[in-house]
Specification:
3-stranded antiparallel β-sheet; elongated; two-stranded parallel sheet; mainly alpha
């Protein structure tokens, strides 16, 4: 059942719905219904927005009371719907969000490819011709040790860097070679394994 204060547009009518415009029409439409059905209708309003103040009932004293209370609830509902529609109509339409730019444009088929930027933008070490390591990096610390006149012993590098023997050996064979340094490894008579970079 739906209350209707103005003419309902035909498109809004649904099959099986019953419409009424006055309390008398509601009374006529519900004559054949048992009073228990009117209790169910009332209880469907009670407690639901905007009917938080209405309480559920177990029964009505008579049919006239049931119809009257349901009619007043339907009127409130109609007024609330009109109020909500007025608020919606008064709000400006939200501005359309600007569309995000798509991914970088792709070159047309057959167009010449752009030259790739090279990674090798690091300054070169004047003495060795290798890439100069980043200041403060582990490589820079080790290079500073190895560029001393007598180089650095395995023990000194382990102590300075907090590494184990195998880490130092691996670093000399891998990272230093990859960075472009030629590391000389030697063992002075009666001394410890020593590494140095020759200019």
């Amino acid at each position: 059942m739906s209350a209707e204060t103005d003419q309902l547009p035909p498109s809004a009518a649904r099959e099986g719905d019953v419409y009424f415009a006055t309390q008398e029409e509601l009374a006529n439409l519900t004559e054949a219904l048992p009073v228990s059905r009117l209790v169910e209708v009332w209880n469907s309003f009670a407690g639901a927005p905007p009917f938080e103040d209405l309480k559920e009932v177990r029964r009505f004293t008579d049919r006239k009371t049931a119809v009257s209370r349901i009619w007043h609830a339907a009127e409130r509902l109609g007024a609330q719907v009109e109020k909500d529609e007025a608020v919606i109509a008064s709000k400006p339409a939200p501005a359309a969000k600007p569309k995000k730019a798509k991914a970088a444009p792709t070159a047309a088929k057959g167009a010449p490819k752009k030259a790739k930027a090279t990674k090798d933008t690091t300054a070169k070490d004047d003495a060795t011709g290798a890439k100069a390591p980043r200041d403060g990096s582990k490589t820079a610390q080790v290079v500073a040790l190895l560029q001393r006149k007598n180089g650095a012993t395995l023990a000194e590098i382990m102590d300075k860097m907090g590494w184990q023997r195998h880490t130092v050996r691996g670093f000399m064979a891998g990272a230093m070679k990859k960075a472009g340094y030629t590391v000389e490894s030697f063992k002075p008579e009666g001394g410890d394994r020593t590494y140095r970079i020759n200019a």
